[in-house]
Amino acid sequence: MLTASVVAFALGVATEQLLDGGPIVASVATAAVVASLFAVRPIDGLPAFLVVVLLADTVEVWSGVDLRYLDEATLPMLGLALVTTQRSRLSIVRPRLREAMLAVFLITAVLSSVVNAVPLNVWLPALGLLGKGFAFFYLVAMLRITSGELHRIASVLFAVALTIGGLGIAQFVGGDLVRDLPLFPPYDQERAGIPLVNSLFRHPALYGWITVFTGLFLFARFVVLREWWALGLAVLLTAASPLSGRRTPILGMFVGLITLFARQASVGRRALRTMVPIAVLLVLLVVVSLPVLGRFYDMTLAEYAEPPELVEEIFADDPDPSELKAMAPRNALYLGSLAITRDHLPFGVGLGRFASHMSRETYSPVYETYGLHRIHGLSERHPIAITDTFWPMIAGETGAIGLLAALAWFALTARDLWRASSRSTPPHVRAFTLGALLVFAEALVRSLTSAVFVAPPIAYFALGTAGLVLAIARTTTPHGSVSPAAVPPLAPR
Fold first, then answer.
1. Mean pLDDT within 290-312
2. What residue segments make up the domains of the chain, in order of their start?
């Protein structure tokens, strides 16, 4: 898998630099290697895709090669491989209420775009960007995977994530001596007096995410398997997450652990006792880091507390841009999406028109309509904050119907993860399932401040691990043996 990842990146670099193929050709060349591995060995191809998506920006920094279309190029190839060379592993997910809600959501998105006369070259790419995370979820969920294969996938991803987390800690401890090494993409900023850590990523936000993502899986492993090394690494990684200078990972970690407490409490008192060491360590961690975390959240209150008259202005019949320009971008996106939902019942303003990538690429007239076009981060000349949320995009572009359908899909998926985590399965499978529930809860918190379910690589990790849980739940029997339906039939002689 790691060899294929290196070869994939090398081919992408060679294609662009030697043949001058541009970002599309370089992305397709890289994707072809990953898809070829998936076609032959899907259990290696799946983590290879996650690793190349995770490190694509890093390779861009190192080599200068533009791989912006990597995931869009790879997903169709993976789907084609699944229905051709890997048909024996294909297990169609039976449509249920969750799938009905997804269908309502996507159909509403298309209808909204047509009703609002959004140009085809805007809403069609926007639909692809919106649906690719869901597509990967179902691609993974439809694979027949055994418990041993799940262990292989999890081990590879854990090794990669732990390496990245450790490099970030070394970057922080080593200071400028380590930070200036060519291994690390350049990033030299401070927040609340902390020098920010980005490890192998271009932006420190990804470092904050991957440390919490890995830490929550390790907490789950400790609870199920009672492995103290897992608890030690979990605490180390979650303690490193504030080095990213982001508040969302810290909040997401606590929500994930609250979910873990609730899950163990539903099992019984004996299971709840396993949470005592975690609770003690978390209290100590909060006490030690309280001065720094306090500055983080003082900044949050100062940034997001808006005066009532400013909130009223955004809901006025003719909002005044000069009044609204002082509003924080995320506040403007949330309040603006509510105003849009009120004014454009029941479909919203259409795909590519609000808080989405395409609304930034082809700057949407909706921002001027609601007086948001002069806000720093939402203006046409400086639109860096347009994709800083997820739910305002859903509400603004698909309206009340789309929002309710999307909320239902995520709620039903969370319910299925909760139920799967209570099944009697082999311990390492149960630990992974419980970890997937925790990181899904963390992703829901993260979606409040980022476009997490549509933006790589986080979308593929959060939705992909959830898909793995559904796949393994249909493959493994309660006693840990492999269901006969999960064994691919022998090819005819």
1. 65
2. 1-90, 147-305+421-473
